[in-house]
Design goal:
The complex is a heterodimer of chains A (320) and B (369). With 320 residues, chain A is an all-alpha fold. Chain A has one domain: Orthogonal Bundle (ABC transporter involved in vitamin B12 uptake, BtuC), CATH 1.10.3470. Chain A contains 14 helices and two strands; from the N terminus they run αααααααββααααααα. In chain A, helix 3 runs antiparallel to helix 11 and helix 3 crosses helix 13. With 369 residues, chain B is α/β, with parallel strands linked by helices. Chain B has two domains: 131 residues, 3-Layer(aba) Sandwich (Rossmann fold); 155 residues, Response regulator (Rossmann fold). In chain B, the strands form two sheets. In chain B, strands 2-1-3-4-5-11 form a six-stranded parallel sheet, sandwiched between helices. Chain B has a six-stranded mixed sheet with strand order 7-6-8-9-10-12, sandwiched between helices. The radius of gyration of chain B is 26 Å and the shape is globular. The chains are: A mainly alpha (320), B alpha/beta (369).
Chain lengths: 320, 369
């Protein structure tokens, strides 16, 4: 048990080193970087993307890709905005949001698992459709003036910490336990690693795939609620490109994009790297013209370190 | 090297018995492509006839109606929606047939829309370019086809654009800076303080010019320090996170130039989150200056959170653009300047209810939802 734990932790060393390096650089140059307030800010700013990334982790571990995350966030956000401004209650809107996300995920899951559509193209198509629906429903407008009770999920406080931070703690821990300790998680690993083999071993790979996509959809909806809560408005262009950044976070965190390998701790590290980077760039007042390039460089750097680690592991396996 | 060449040549050889089969496959592939081309040719003529006929039927004999292709991104903000409505209303009044295309923020879509207009042989093109450099090829194509190209709100860096109708974005930045300087003088008795420049965008002319104008005035005051300059991108989440981080690093800030309404809303949200949002009459109030003039900004001015807004009037701007283009088409009267600057109005809490503002036009109240 201790051996596997140490092996797992070592596999996250590259991402951990990159994160530590970034924190060191920023802390050295901006005095208020290392304050608890700033750390909370970083968690708040990455919260929507983190929730998306957790959902994506389930899908990717199961051997598929899902490019529709950002679009689901946009549509759920807009639907919430419409419902709230039409007078619906906050709890009802919240439940509708989760249901909508789950249904969209279910749709993706059925198309991939039952109709055998390739996940990449299918989710790309659903991304375009869902984004289109978001624009159509909202007319492109941002809906302001949402009731405070709904915004609680995004900007409320509970026992001294913001609600999104609690959600992150809960969901990262929860997804870690589900993926590493439960039978469901075991099935996901199996299907992600070798779907045919899993089927022959008696695991219904179609069922697992539908379940992971639905779960992801649910988490995307939660991300939408948190984002809307933070912004205080339902923005129809939310989450644009968020799924790609989340995918990069997964890759940095050591989750294999072909499935079956990795754990949510890696996702957390990847998301924190991106969050620290964005926050640090703003705080250091680096030129906004270079921000995008710097972000690309950091992701590339983290990938290099991760690939070096995989390379060395593989060499070790070959020698055995 | 020679070996690689030889191997490649080997691989390109067609397998035995395959030559006739390959030729047949190629022909079969070409057939649908050929059919599409033919259909396209015929389709082009057909569309032109039907549009020509329908417009000629609806209007009196003397007035030849024009077709203008309009390409804007009307889905990003109330400003854009107002621009579109101003254009549509003026076109209706002038009896111009519009082909309105929305490019949804995608550059390739806008470029192909311009090319489609050229193919459809419109009389004029009115566009709101997404990027100042990337569309110069499309503009050139249009001008070479004899179609005058007008830009509204922002422009393309190309000598081919006949006229741009927009607000002087540089002037907007200057007016914002001058307003902030005045307020700082009131607060401190001297022209000093710490300000933040929250950019509207890093890749459009209007975005860059708003910052340029701001710098032009602020650089004259050595005691006023621009402590941070980051991109809000006129996106609610980007602006909110940027302002949160900036205020985290610089707790003592006197003023923020938000460069746009969405940036200002993001700044408000960030300040509310950090607990430093105070109305105008209190001592630790941070001066916020917005631009464009959406309804939420005006409400925030009434509430005392935003201090000023450098307002444009997109309804009138759109109308002016259509009228100027029509004048060129009917009277062959080229506009005397290549840039027609539509006047700006600095809205503050003091002049919200004034006659001058009503005359300028509160566009956010005049647009149809």
């Amino acid at each position: 048990m201790k051996e596997t734990l140490r092996r797992e932790l070592r596999s996250h060393a590259p991402a951990g080193i990159m994160l530590a390096a970034l924190i060191f650089v920023f802390a050295a140059n901006a005095e208020l970087f290392l304050s608890p307030r700033n750390f909370i800010n970083i968690l708040m700013q990455t919260a929507p993307m983190c929730l998306l990334a957790i959902g994506l982790t389930f899908v990717v571990m199961g051997g598929n890709l899902d490019l529709s995350g950002g679009a689901v966030i946009a549509l759920v956000s807009v639907v919430c905005g419409k419902m709230l401004s039409g007078g619906a209650g906050s709890i009802l809107t919240f439940l509708t949001a989760l249901l909508l996300g789950a249904l969209l995920g279910l749709f993706n899951g059925i198309c991939v698992a039952k109709l055998k559509m390739p996940a990449f193209i299918l989710t790309m198509a659903t991304q375009i459709m869902i984004r289109g629906m978001a624009l159509a429903v909202s007319g492109g407008k941002t809906i302001y003036g949402l009731p405070e009770s709904f915004l609680f999920a995004g900007s409320g406080y509970l026992l001294g910490l913001p609600v999104p931070v609690w959600l992150l703690i809960l969901l990262f821990a929860g997804s870690y336990i589900i993926l590493q300790q439960t039978v469901f998680g075991y099935h996901i690993h199996a299907v992600g690693d070798n779907a045919k083999g899993a089927r022959m071993a008696g695991i219904s790979d179609t069922r697992v795939q539908i379940e992971v996509f639905t779960l992801a959809g649910l988490l995307y909806a939660l991300a939408a609620v948190v984002l809307t809560g933070q912004l205080g408005a339902a923005v129809s262009t939310s989450g644009d490109g968020m799924e790609m950044t989340a995918l990069a976070c997964l890759a940095i965190g050591g989750i294999s994009l072909s499935g079956g390998r990795g754990d949510p701790l890696g996702t957390l590290l990847g998301c924190l790297i991106i969050g620290v980077l964005t926050n640090g760039v703003n705080m250091l007042n680096l030129s906004p013209y270079y921000t995008t390039f710097i972000r690309g460089m950091v992701i590339f750097g983290a990938l290099v370190i991760e690939c070096v680690r995989l390379f060395r592991n593989r060499k070790g396996e070959d020698e055995l | 090297m020679k070996r690689i060449f030889g191997q490649t040549l080997q691989k390109l050889k067609i397998r035995s018995g395959g030559l006739s089969r390959s030729v047949l496959q190629l022909l079969l592939l070409c057939l649908p492509v050929l059919m599409l081309c033919l259909a396209g040719c015929r389709g082009g003529i057909v569309t032109e006839n039907t549009t020509g006929e329908s417009t000629r039927q609806n209007l009196p004999e003397e007035e030849r109606s024009f077709t203008i292709g309009v390409s804007i991104n009307s889905l990003r903000s109330p400003f854009m929606i107002a621009l579109k409505q101003g254009i549509e209303k003026a076109a209706e009044e002038e009896g111009i047939h519009l082909i309105l295309s929305d490019c949804n923020g995608d550059l390739y879509t806008q470029s192909s829309q311009i090319q489609d207009f050229v193919t459809q042989k419109v009389d004029g093109i009115l566009m709101e370019p997404l990027d100042e450099d990337a569309l110069s090829m499309a503009v050139k194509e249009a001008t070479e086809a004899g179609i005058p190209v007008y830009c509204v709100d922002t422009t393309v860096q190309s000598g081919e654009v006949r006229c741009t109708i927009g607000s002087d974005s540089s002037l907007m930045g200057e007016m914002a800076a001058e307003y902030i300087v005045e307020r700082l003088k009131e607060k401190y008795g001297a022209c000093r303080g710490r300000v933040v420049n929250l950019l509207a965008s890093v890749n459009t002319t209007s975005g860059r010019n708003r910052s340029r104008g701001f710098h032009k005035v602020m650089d004259q005051y050595p005691d006023i320090e621009i402590v941070a300059e980051q991109n809000g991108a006129l996106q609610l989440d980007t602006a909110m996170y940027a302002v949160t981080n900036i205020l985290q690093a610089n707790p003592q800030v006197d003023a923020i130039w938000c460069s746009g309404d969405t940036n200002a809303q993001g700044a408000l949200r960030a300040m509310r989150w950090l607990g430093c949002l105070t109305p105008a009459d209190q001592e630790d109030h941070i001066i916020l200056v917005s631009a464009d003039g959406a309804a939420e900004t005006l409400q925030a001015i009434r509430d005392g959170y935003i201090d000023a807004c450098i307002s444009q009037n997109p309804l009138e701007m759109g109308a002016l653009a259509v009228k100027t283009l029509k004048r060129q088409l009917t009277e062959a009267a080229l506009p005397d300047q290549s840039f027609l600057a539509y006047p700006l109005f600095v809205i503050t809490a003091d002049n919200m209810e004034s006659e001058e503002l009503k005359e300028y036009g509160i566009w956010s109240e005049e647009i149809e939802p």
